[in-house]
Write a structure and sequence with these properties.
Blueprint lengths: L32 H12 L3 H21 L7 H29 L4 H11 L11 H6 L15 H12 L3 H8 L18 H16 L13 E5 L6 H11 L3 E5 L1 H4 L6 H15 L3 E5 L16 H17 L6 H4 L1 E7 L7 H6 L2 E4 L5 H12 L8 H10 L5 H19 L17 H10 L6 H14 L25
Helix pairs in contact: 1-2, 2-3, 2-4, 4-6, 4-7, 11-12, 15-16, 15-17, 17-18
The structure holds adenosine-5'-triphosphate (ATP) and magnesium ion.
Length: 486
């Protein structure tokens, strides 16, 4: 849990005039101020990447403090103004950094400097960021806290990153490690019992009882989640991130690709090395088809081919017998809507390929119940059954959209009278009439032939399990509400 950020808010003395204008907040009082000072120093010295990194860190701190402030807090407006100023600076600097990087060529100079300058301004008159600031910054996970009294460590870190030519890549990938727990759990995920069991067998059990999972029982290294959009591929990966005690890298094409020749492969290599170093770890690659489509196509760029080759090599390296047991504990989870476009060699490496299907009747019913119970409604058991029946072919996210639309029904009914309502309790209930209307507005988003295509693909290449909620270990079961009015 993140610590409360209330201490970031400068205390107001009793009876003191509250500052309300942009100019009343002293820049040195605002959260993240030490980073902002460092950043402006870097900027003066033309170290744009250093400035960029420090502004980013300052902005993160200021954002968290801003979110913590109640909306009527006198500093709210000041923080908002400062935030927008600093965000503009970050944007402007990101362009300059790009330019600086391009000039530095392949040596990766500016990125390298960027990581160093974040905490290593030993000559800085304002001093490094305070260790309090450091604690609050989620984006510095894995970076040693700065020691205010001793610059020796900072110099040591600088030396370390000079020795390590991949330091810039590591810094970039550090940003893709999910440090805080995403706000979802397996109980929120309806259906998907086979996906849950596969994850249980491959990730959770082996972590709990490693001594049982040796030899033939050694867990596979790759799980591919495929299926129509909006049914929980990304969501379930977030559940894994929040429930397992692993380092979780959430990677997308933009984290790995680069416009500089040779950099993308190095990023891929660095990713796997970091995953091994920080094992047990999970590399989750969302929309994996955008990175690893079949090789040899006419329009395939040379760089894209090299990324795929590097991926295959690194994947094989993960389970190599030369590695220690700990280094072997790296799992790769891929998610895609287009499994047929993946390279065959990539597909082979994902030993479990699991369809994340459209929700069946029970899953639709459960999802409807879970979503609607959060709002005032007078739907009966029969109503829920009826809506579940009528939403055949709807994806989970279609159902979510349907519920959102129906929830707007009572507001639409009120028309201009809405201005007379001040509390949510006064708004009338959602009824079946609203759902009937919304069923005309919100339609299923995946065409039937496309769905059939996924089922056919699953028959050919998928790992097929048939499980119900009750077959799962209790901690993975979805929340099931009892029938209405019982
Ligand atoms: N099985 C599910 N149970 C409950 N809610 C779900 C489920 N699947 C999807 N949702 C809802 O739909 C939203 C979108 O789901 P998600 O992003 O995981 O889909 P996806 O399969 O990754 O889609 P895409 O292929 O387009 O990336 C989720 O944030 C969640 O609110
Ligand atoms: Mg997704």
């Amino acid at each position: 849990m993140a610590q409360p950020l209330s201490w970031f808010v400068p205390e107001l003395k009793e009876n003191e005039e509250t500052p309300v204008t942009n100019d009343n907040t002293n820049e040195s009082d605002i959260p993240g101020s030490s980073f902002f000072k460092l950043a402006s120093e870097c900027e003066l010295n033309n170290d744009f990447s250093g400035a960029f990194a420090n502004y980013q860190k300052g902005v993160k701190l200021l954002e968290s403090a801003f979110d913590e402030l109640p909306s009527d807090h006198p500093f709210k407006e000041n923080y908002r103004n400062k935030l927008s100023d600093f965000r503009v600076k970050v944007l402007r600097l990101s362009k300059k950094t790009d330019l600086q990087h391009r000039r530095a060529g392949q040596s990766g100079g500016s990125h390298h400097r960027r990581t160093q300058s974040t905490f290593t301004s030993s000559n800085s008159q304002t001093g490094p960021p305070s260790s309090d600031d450091w604690k609050k910054d989620d984006y510095t996970k894995g970076v040693e806290p700065p020691d205010q009294n001793n610059n020796h460590d900072n110099k040591k870190n600088q030396k370390k990153s000079e020795d390590n030519p991949d330091a810039a890549f590591e810094a970039r990938l550090e940003e893709d490690i999910i440090a805080e727990s995403p706000n979802v759990s397996f109980a929120d995920v309806l259906g998907l019992n086979s996906v849950k069991l596969a994850l249980y067998e491959t990730v959770i059990l082996p972590a709990l009882k490693p001594q049982l999972f040796t030899g033939l029982r050694e867990p596979g290294m790759g799980i591919l989640l495929f299926g129509p959009p909006g049914n929980g591929k990304t969501m379930i990966a977030k559940c894994v991130a929040s429930s397992c005690q692993c380092t979780f890298f959430s990677i997308s094409a933009s984290s790995i690709t680069s416009k500089f020749v040779g950099e993308a492969e190095r990023l891929m290599r660095t990713l796997f090395r970091m995953a091994r170093d920080k094992a047990p770890s999970i590399i989750f690659i969302d929309e994996i088809d955008s990175l690893l489509t079949a090789r040899g196509g006419k329009s395939e760029a040379e760089s894209s081919r090299r990324i795929k080759t590097e991926f295959l090599v690194q994947f094989d390296g993960v389970g190599a017998s030369t590695q220690t047991n700990q280094e072997k504990q790296v799992l790769i989870i891929g998610a895609t809507n287009l499994p047929e476009e993946l390279d065959d060699a990539v597909l082979r490496r994902f030993s479990k390929r699991i369809l994340v299907p459209q929700p069946d009747f029970d899953a639709r019913y459960g999802l409807l119940r879970n979503l609607v119970q959060k709002q005032k409604n007078n739907l009966s058991e029969e109503d829920f059954q009826l809506i579940s029946k009528k939403t055949d072919r709807y994806s989970c996210s279609d159902i979510k959209n349907l519920c959102k639309d129906a929830a707007m029904g009572p507001i639409r009914d009120l028309g201009v009278n809405i201005v007379n309502f001040s509390s949510e309790d006064e708004v009338p209930d959602i009824t079946i009439k609203h759902f009937e209307q919304s069923l005309k507005n919100v339609r299923a988003s995946v065409p039937p032939d496309r769905l059939q295509h996924y089922y056919d693909y699953n028959k050919k290449y998928g790992s097929i399990f048939n499980l119900s909620n009750i077959d799962l270990p209790p901690e993975l079961r979805a929340t099931e509400l009892p029938p209405v009015n019982m």
